[in-house]
Amino acid sequence: MELDYTFIVIGSLAGVIGGMMPGVGMTVMMISAYPLLVSLQVEQIFQLYISAILVSQFAGSIVATYFAIPGEMSSVP
């Protein structure tokens, strides 16, 4: 498996968007990105998804800390 950094960057950007918008989790982001994911290989989808999940957890915590609005469901506590 070879790392393709373009999908990691795209996943990171999607994670920031998904984490910063309250009520929009990574499930909604992945459903909206589904037409783009159909044409990718399995390794590329994993790279995109894992980087998006990791970044969204961090971005959701920032929104929850500063604005008291949970960006991700795991940021509610």
Describe the structure.
The chain is mostly helical. 69% of the residues lie in helices and 0% in strands. The protein contains four helices and no strands. It has helices spanning 5-20, 26-32, 34-37, 42-67. The longest helix is centred in the last third of the chain and has 26 residues, at 42-67. The protein is elongated, with a radius of gyration of 13 Å.
How do the helices and strands line up, and which of them pair or pack?
Blueprint: H1 5-20, H2 26-32, H3 34-37, H4 42-67
Helix pairs in contact: 1-4
| Percent strand | under 5%
Rg calc:
13 Å
Shape: elongated
Summed over residues and divided by their number, the pLDDT gives a mean of 82
Order of helices and strands: HHHH
Structural class: mainly alpha
Strands, total number: 0
Distance between the termini: 37 Å
Task: Please outline the major beta sheet.
Answer: none
Helical content band: 55-70%
Number of discrete helical segments: 4
Low-confidence stretches: none
What's this entry about, in short?
With 77 residues, this protein is mainly alpha-helical. It has helices at residues 5-20, 26-32, 34-37, 42-67. The protein is elongated.
Structural features:
single chain; 77 residues; mainly alpha; elongated
